[in-house]
Amino acid sequence: MGMKLKLRPALYFLLPFLLGIIIGEYTSIPILWLWIFIVLCFVGTILTRNKTRFMCYVLINIAIFGCGMLRFEIASFPKIPNHYFDQPVSFNGKTVYQPERGKEWDACYAVGQIQLLSDPSQEVSAKLLIRFDKLMPLRYGKQIKLTGDLRQAPTKRNPGGFNYRTYLERQNVSGILYHQGLVSIGKQSGIPPLRWIETLRLKTEQVIDDAYAGLETQSTNTSGIEETPSNDTTLHAKLLKGILLGKRGDLPSETLEIFRNSGTFHVLAVSGLHVGLIAFFCYLALSAFRRIPKKVVSLLTIIAVLIYACLVGFRPSVFRASLMVILYLIATIIDRDADIYNLLAIAALTLLLLNPTQLGDVGFQLSFVAVTSIVFFVPKMEKPLQKLWNDTESTNVSTLQRYKNIAIKWLVLSYLVTFAAQIGTTPLIAYHFYRAYPLGIIVGPFAVGLVSLIVGIGMVLSVLVLSGYHLPKSLFLSIMRFSMFF
């Protein structure tokens, strides 16, 4: 056991830090006391490092444990005092992301200063979710001033229900501001690459909407009467935006419930699956150009993953998956043996240092349980099936047979990866949500395969159109309708 910990130093630091966060969640110790405790532990390690090595290691672990408690205590300290809530306030800040918008409402995340209208001398800085009862010209980096009522998000009402307040707090969002009264939207600023990526996202949505709008026009028969397929067409466009960009706000509740009950709802929530697919397709496509060195391919794949992460808003699940992929690709660039368990520990440690409250997030737990389950189970399940494609490397096999074996290997491994992830995540979903989706273990792998097809085709076609390539609309629609048909 000791040997494994030495080979995986990130795991050695992660375990006591993790335990400190867990204990810190159920206790409340003043920050000053924790600082003193940690300093004393580190002083103890210096004094004992040449005398009692065992005691030195114990004190290091206790110090890391204390750091976990301290980090959680700092992160959980409320940024907005309680007396600000349910009061009219003024807000002056800058928009950072627009999560969803409806036909008659709008919303955005913004960071700025909050003042009580009853006492303008009281001011705090925080990140808020701002809701409008009408559509607004919101973009990333817009300066925004408004007044409204500041409220806390609702908590869960039933066991296993969704706790919206905790969800927002884990994204450092301190409350919801409901717009009432004056609003002023100023000039756009912010980081130029992020502004360009937001423009890219809006254009991608426009490409999908325009393409399917064209199909709706074509669905009108010669007598001028519109036929029923137009409703399916609109649904296809919404599904495509949900799968590619995670925008599922416009999807009908019946459609969402079908995905939820079948255990395949995760395909509509942009997550590690989508980031992994983007990384896989980019790496595969770039590797086809043999003159490009593997290190350059890895670097370009990292850039593609970062662009996609910004495209969908760098939500927590995307950030986690992007970090894991980037750490793995960096390991290949610097010619280091990429130990998956150590990379997982590095990713978890990095995320918890940035925001320790994520540990209680179901998405955080599912991400790491799924990847750990894949790494653990797939090699064991793959071994007895290798005879199905073992002839791939043989020189006596024809080209057609070799490609056939590669296709079999890809299909089998794709199913095993998804099946292994379902094995790991199903008990966790049942524990948190008091619901089990046995059908998901069977249907999930097939759904992921179809989503892979949609994501791959959708991204390629969108990139072609956005880059100025005049793809015939009928061809675009035919390909996307074929993939969405499944």
Number of strands: 5
The percent range for helix content is: 55-70%
Structural class: alpha+beta
Shape: globular
Oligomer: single chain
Number of helices: 16
Query: What is the strand content?
Result: 5-15%
Straight-line distance between termini:
48 Å
Q: Order of strands across the biggest sheet?
A: 1-2-3-5-4
State Rg: 25 Å
User: Helix and strand string, N-terminal first?
Assistant: HHHHEEEEHEHHHHHHHHHHH
Model description:
- The protein has 486 residues and is an alpha+beta fold.
- Strand 1 (87-97) and strand 2 (106-116) form a beta hairpin.
- Among the domains are: 2-75; 82-190, OB fold (Dihydrolipoamide Acetyltransferase, E2P), CATH 2.40.50.140; 192-348, no CATH class.
- It has helices at 2-7, 9-26, 31-48, 53-75, 164-169, 192-218, 229-245, 253-261, 272-287, 294-311, 316-333, 340-354, 362-382, 399-433, 438-466, 473-485; strands at 87-97, 106-116, 123-132, 142-151, 173-188.
- The radius of gyration is 25 Å and the shape is globular.
- The protein has a five-stranded mixed barrel with strand order 1-2-3-5-4.
- Mean pLDDT is 78; it is low at 1-5 and 219-231.
- Helices cover 59% and strands 12% of the residues.
How would you summarize what this structure contains?
The protein is α+β, with helices and mostly antiparallel strands. Among the domains are: 74 residues; 109 residues, OB fold (Dihydrolipoamide Acetyltransferase, E2P), CATH 2.40.50; 157 residues, no CATH class.
Q: Which keywords apply here?
A:
five-stranded mixed β-barrel, single chain, 16 helices, 5 strands, OB fold (Dihydrolipoamide Acetyltransferase, E2P)
